[in-house]
Amino acid sequence: MKPKIIKTEAEYQATLARIETIFDAKPGTAKGEELELLLLLVETYEAKAYPIDPPDPISALRFRMEQDGLKPKDLIPYIGSKSKVSEVLSGRRSLSLTMIRKLVSGLQLPAEVALRKAKSQPARRTAKVRTARRLQAASTHGP
What we know:
CATH architecture of the domain at 57-114: Orthogonal Bundle
Low-confidence stretches: none
Shape: elongated
CATH class of the domain at 57-114: Mainly Alpha
Strand content: under 5%
Number of helices: 8
C-alpha cells in the first residue's frame, strides 16, 4: 500500500487494515517507518472526520470533582459561598474570571475548557413571572 492522504471512509478502513498487518514492525525499519506514517495519516483523518468538542466548563468541573472525589463544599475556596457553588453547578450562575483563575490554578481545570461558554440552561420561571402571565391572560380573556 502506498501511503497517501486519507480522504474517504474506504481509504480510512484500508489504512487501518494495513496498520493492523504491520503493527508489530520494529522502529527504524522500512515497515516501522510505514507504520509511523500511516498512524499520522489516520490521526489527521480522524481529527477532521470525527472531531471531539471539548466539554463545557460545568461538565468538566463535575468530571474533575468525580475524579478527585470532591463534594460541592470542596469548591467553596474556588467559587465562593455554598450558594454560589450550587448556582454554578446548576447552571444558574456563570463562572466569573476570578473563579476560572482559581479553578485553573487550584484544580488544574484546562483554561481553554474553563473559558468556554457553558451550555445554556432552560430558563426557570419564577412565581412572579407565572403570576404576571396569569393576570395578563385573565385580563385579555376577561368579560
